[in-house]
Write a structure and sequence with these properties.
Elements lengths: L24 E2 L2 H25 L6 H27 L4 E2 L1 H12 L6 H13 L17 H13 L7 E2 L2 H4 L7 H8 L1 H20 L2 H28 L19 H6 L6 H6 L15 H11 L3 E2 L6 H7 L2
Antiparallel strand pairs: 1-3, 2-4
Helix pairs in contact: 1-9, 2-3, 2-4, 2-8, 2-9, 3-7, 5-9, 8-9
């Protein structure tokens, strides 16, 4: 337990803005089309990468760039977008906030404000009407119902016609001029997130072919992998796994996603203690995002980590 830990407080969890009405905002058709392309283009890139690599394996330079970009953008989502900006599970300097917000933006999961608003709405309405991406709010039953629900929670919700009101659900972040600017410049960060791996591939190999491989693997294939790992928390971790805590929703701990998603897959733990900087609450629940946050604390780049006490954990168990 960190010396800087403070008790988890559900009352301050959402950080809602001053808007009195929780009215959804209509999503422009152009953005829904953009979201569709953001799903399809990385998938097409994966097919291309498989065809390109067939018979002679993955180029080591491309693999190195892929892994590096997954780390940068993946932790940008888990540590930045999620634990810092959505749940305020620790505090840090403005420049670190800027860095994490940019890294999360390069994951191409949407501007900071919209991502935060959607996730806070999910916690407020988890698996009940109003949840933006629950797999359980449809009329179908049996296998068909499971497939329909999983698809909606995984990626189908990106094509919905409405989204949460950012003035209400991200009101605290909108007070920061820096964070507003980062959110508005989302297309720029996406472009940088594609340019960086292309430049790295070119520098490593010294060829234009290496630059193309860097763009393919570290850019588009990386977007595909980070997207589907993130989206699996919405789908898989609300259908498959254990529920040690009574959260009155379908959130579950999934061991596979706990590792692949940098600790985010301990999802029932997270729903029991949303503001906790640590999701893997047991010693064996590997949570690499929390390990990095602890390292940041050791380096005095993070402070006031919010963690549940042992008594709170025991009280919340089923």
């Amino acid at each position: 337990m960190s010396n800087t830990a403070t008790q988890y407080s559900r009352a301050s969890e959402l950080g809602l803005g001053q808007a009195k009405e929780d009215l959804p905002v209509r999503v422009p058709t152009s953005r829904r089309v953009t979201n569709l392309f953001a799903v399809l283009i990385p998938f097409a890139a994966v097919v291309l990468a498989i065809v390109w690599s067939w018979g002679h394996g993955i180029n080591l330079a491309g693999l190195a760039v892929l892994c590096g970009m997954i780390v940068i953008t993946g932790y940008g989502i888990t540590i930045g977008y999620h634990r810092l900006f959505t749940h305020r599970s620790f505090q840090t300097y403005s420049m670190v906030q800027f860095f994490l917000a940019v890294c999360g933006s390069m994951a191409v999961e949407g501007p900071l404000m919209r991502w935060v608003a959607t996730h806070r709405k999910h916690h407020q309405c988890s698996d009940v009407p109003g949840d933006p991406h629950s797999p359980h709010l449809h009329d179908s039953n049996g296998l068909r119902g499971l497939v329909v629900g999983l698809w909606h929670a995984h990626a189908g919700w990106l094509l919905d016609r409405c989204e949460p009101n950012m003035a209400r659900y991200a009101g605290d972040l909108r007070k920061s001029r820096m964070l507003r600017l980062v959110s508005r410049l989302f297309p720029l960060w996406v472009l940088i997130g594609l340019t960086l791996p292309m430049a790295a591939g070119g520098l490593i190999t010294g060829t234009w072919g290496g630059a193309a491989l860097g763009l393919l693997w570290g850019g588009l294939v990386r977007i595909f992998l980070v997207h589907h790992i993130t989206w699996s928390i919405n789908s898989i971790c609300h259908c498959f796994g254990r529920q040690p805590f009574n959260c009155k929703d379908e959130s579950r701990n999934n061991v596979v996603m706990g590792v692949l998603a940098f600790g985010e897959g301990w999802h029932n733990n997270h729903h029991a203690f949303p503001s906790s900087a640590r999701h893997g609450l047991a010693w064996w629940q590997f949570d690499s995002s929390y390990l990095i946050i602890r390292l940041m604390e050791k380096l005095r780049l993070a402070w006031n980590l919010r963690l549940p006490t042992d008594d709170m954990i025991e009280l919340a168990r089923r």
